[in-house]
Structures are given as structure tokens and as C-alpha cells.
Design goal:
Layout (H helix, E strand, L loop, with lengths): L1 H18 L9 E3 L5 H11 L1 E7 L6 E7 L9 E10 L2 E10 L8
Parallel strand pairs: 1-2
Antiparallel strand pairs: 2-3, 4-5
């Protein structure tokens, strides 16, 4: 009798579980120096988050960072903070996620 109830439960819940599983959308990866600042910002605004590659400072190779439209695209403990990348035509201010660490000035 228990096996019939278990079978019924699985039969009823399985379609709902499968329906919730969909293809994950891939995050775009672009080169900062191949795009203008406006193009980079437009991509981020459309997609919410984009991986942007850019040359590291002091010849440290290529860096890969995830830039976001706002803090809503960060983990709950992170906030969107300003960062600058070398875009085509000059420096570009974008936002990436950093762990929020409140300052305790009154200690």
C-alpha cells in the first residue's frame, strides 16, 4: 500500500520538478579594449552581467572580471562597487560585485 502512495506522489510531483529545470543562459564574455564604454554599458544593461576581459596593470596578463548592472546581480552579501576598465577610447567606469564590509568607526 505504501508503494502505491509513493508511486502516486512521484507521478504527481515529477512533472513540476522537471518543468522548473531549464537551460541556463550563458554569460557573455567580451574584451574591454574591443568595445567603447557605451557598448560595454549597453551590454551589461541588456544582460544584467557580463564577463569582461582586460589587460592587468603592470603587465600581469589578462584579467577576467564579472561586471553587473546593479547590486541585484550580486550575491546577497555583496554590493556593486565602481571599477574602471581600459575600454576602446579611454577608461570606462563599470560595477563589479565585492563583499560588503561595514566600517565600525565607533569602536
Amino acid at each position: 500500500m505504501k508503494s502505491i502512495h509513493l508511486f502516486s506522489f512521484v507521478l504527481v510531483t515529477l512533472p513540476f520538478l522537471v518543468a522548473g529545470v531549464g537551460p541556463a543562459s550563458a554569460i557573455s564574455r567580451v574584451s574591454a579594449t574591443s568595445h567603447t564604454c557605451g557598448e560595454l554599458r549597453s551590454m551589461i544593461a541588456r544582460q544584467g552581467a557580463v564577463i569582461i576581459t582586460h589587460p592587468g596593470s603592470r603587465g600581469s596578463g589578462t584579467l577576467y572580471d564579472r561586471y553587473v548592472n546593479d547590486s541585484g546581480y550580486c550575491d546577497p552579501s555583496d554590493v556593486a562597487t565602481e571599477d574602471y576598465v581600459p575600454a576602446k577610447g579611454g577608461s570606462c567606469r563599470l560595477y563589479n560585485c565585492q563583499t560588503y564590509e561595514p566600517t565600525f568607526d565607533n569602536w
